[in-house]
Every structure is written in C-alpha cells, then in structure tokens.
Write a structure and sequence with these properties.
This protein has 21 helices and seven strands. The chain is of the alpha/beta class.
Length: 352
C-alpha cells in the first residue's frame, strides 16, 4: 500500500470498482493508533493551519519555500523530494478578498454558495477570484458560508478521527442552508467531492440523513455551469469568438465520482473553442504522494506515461486545462507549462 497513490482512479477504472483509497485510509488510521503518527503525516494533515499561519506574512513564507538554501532545508526536514517545487501562498486569501469586497459585490436572485477549500483559499486564490467574478458576470450572486476546511489532507494521511470531526461540523453547518435552489459548489475536485464520498461514510448517525441530502446538492463548479448551460441560463454571446484549442487533463477523483463531460461542456461554450481530452490516467502527483522523497521518482514516471509528453508536444498557443491543483503542479514541474483551471479559461474568454 505504500505505493498506492490514493488518487481514487481504482474506484472508476477497476472492473470491481474497489475503493482502495478508503481501505488505505482505514488501514493507516489503525496503524497510527498502534505505532504513532509520523511527523511528516502530521505536517501534511495540518496543511490548512500552516497555510493560515504563513498567510500572516506570505512574502516571507514564499521566500522560505522558494529560496534554494531554505527550501532545501525545509524539504529535508519534512521528508520531501529536493527536486520538487513547493506550493506558494497568494498575497491574500480568498476569504479576505471576499469579505473585503462583500459590501460592493453584485446581488442577484440566483444565489450559489461557494465552498472555500483550503487549497483555493491560500494557494490558488487567483482561481477562486476569477471563479467568483465569472459567476457574477454570468448573473449569479456568490456567497461563501462559514465552514471548516475540507479535511482532504487528514483523510489522505489516514487520520480519519480528525477528519470525521471536520466532516460532521461541515455537514451540520451547511445542511441548514444548502438546497437544490441554492447549491454548494467547489473549485478543487478533491475537496468538494468529499461531500459526495467520504463525508457520508464519516457522518455520525444523527448527521447521516443530512449528509446524504447535502451530497445531492453539491457540485463541482464545472458541473454547476454545465447544468446552467443546459437550462439556457448562460448565453454564449458573452464569450469571445476567437478560435482556440484546449487540451484537458482530468482529475482522478472527478473521473471517479463525476466525469469530465461537464468540464468539456463548459470549455466548449465559446463557439470557436475546441476541446480535446488528454488520454491520461493519474498525473502522478496525487496530493502529497509526489512530494514525498521516496515517491518522487515514481510520481514523475507516472506523469511521463502520457500526460507530460502530451503537454510538451503542444504549441505555445494551445491552452492546457486541468481542474486539479495537484495536476497543475505536476504539469508545472514536469513540463514547465502553466495549466489553467477551466473557470480561468472561461474567465479569460469573456468579452471585455
């Protein structure tokens, strides 16, 4: 199981649909109870807390994780591969940006709630901002409700008792406001899809019915926009008629619990945008797996199977799209290309 990525690919690609990621997480929980929790696992699980602390002085944090001397020291202490780049923090968090402009943000009868996951909040803030601005331009009012982190990092390291507390607090808080008319949408697949998957398993008996009901009104932002296109609520005349080619790499958990169809649909909204899916499996990053020193080489070999060579072959004017934060990081490190989230592609395609 040490070499199992927990990318969830097995849940959809295995003929028996065996979710080995859940088996591994449960095994690790039992193993940690008997043998203690490794330092690296604790640090990865506490990603949200460390990011929040770092966001007090993001410039200093970013210098420490990008400067060759200090970043090498940090990676060695954490047990990360020296060759792997570290994620940096945005100058502000999405939460801070949202609350700062709350009084001037446009209002609408069409309301959606945005799950501000820990990755979008601190690292991919620009994607979160563009996602909100895109939805507002399309006629929606975006509300970020009070909630906990997703718990994805805790689950990935098998710290399920801590993840269970997070899951139940989120279910209790959000099930009171999320409905079919006011759904919960998320930008990072690995975070928002916990509501459809692990949260149902982790829900206490008193929260189980609420967790099941909530899961039916939780969507990837790609799915939400695709549904609104089908309803005729989004007009393609808002977008450019420029001709562009997009190469799309799908996130493993999105493929396991949803599909790439929604991403393809929204990327095809501008009438002269052509979308082609890269026939890739897991990018090899799989959250923290690709950071860990003993897994780095395997991570890159997996990326080299299909994804990274396919990206390198593309001309500079071809847009590389990837919904997952880990996938975009792998593409940056392995192919030296910047991949965009689908909502970024749509935001840039808006007529000015």
């Amino acid at each position: 199981m040490d070499l199992f990525l927990s990318c969830k690919g097995c849940k959809s690609e295995c003929p028996s649909n065996v979710d080995v990621a859940k088996l591994k997480a449960e095994f690790l929980q039992q193993y940690h109870e008997s043998n203690g929790i490794p330092f690296r696992s604790r640090m990865i699980a506490n990603f949200n807390k460390s990011s929040r602390l770092g966001s007090i002085a993001p410039g200093i944090y970013n210098f420490m994780v990008t400067n060759p001397a200090t970043s090498t020291l940090i990676k060695r202490i954490l047990g990360f591969a020296v060759k792997r780049s570290m994620p940096t923090l945005h100058k502000t968090s999405l939460e801070k940006w949202y609350h700062k402009r709350a009084s001037t943000a446009p209002k609408s009868d069409r309301k959606v709630y945005l799950f501000c996951d820990e990755f979008t909040n601190f690292n991919d803030t620009e994607i979160g901002i563009k996602g909100i601005l895109l939805l507002e331009k399309l006629g929606y009012e975006v509300i970020i409700p009070k909630h906990e982190e997703s718990g994805r990092a805790w689950m990935s390291k098998g710290l399920l008792k801590a993840a269970k507390k997070i899951a139940n607090r989120n279910v209790a808080a959000l099930s009171k406001i999320i409905t079919a008319e006011t759904p919960l949408i998320g930008i990072e697949p690995s975070a928002i899809l916990t509501f459809r998957d692990e949260y149902i398993d982790l829900a206490e008996d008193e929260n189980f019915a609420a967790a099941k009901a909530l899961s039916k009104n939780v969507f990837l932002i790609d799915e939400f926009i695709a549904r609104e296109i089908e309803k005729g609520n989004i007009d393609k005349s808002l977008f450019t008629k420029e001709k562009r080619l997009i190469k799309l790499h799908g996130h493993c958990q999105q493929k396991a619990l949803s599909s790439l169809a929604a991403s393809v649909k929204i990327l095809s909204l501008p009438e002269n945008y052509s979308v082609e899916s890269i026939p890739s499996g897991c990018c090899g990053m799989a959250g923290s797996f690709g950071f860990e020193k003993e897994h780095y080489d395997l991570s890159m070999k997996i990326g080299e199977l299909v994804l990274l060579p396919a990206v390198r072959r593309q001309a500079e004017d071809v847009i590389i799209a990837a919904p997952g934060t880990s996938c975009r990081h792998q593409i940056k490190d392995g192919a030296q290309r910047k991949a965009l989230h689908p909502v970024e592609v749509l935001y840039y395609a808006l007529k000015q």
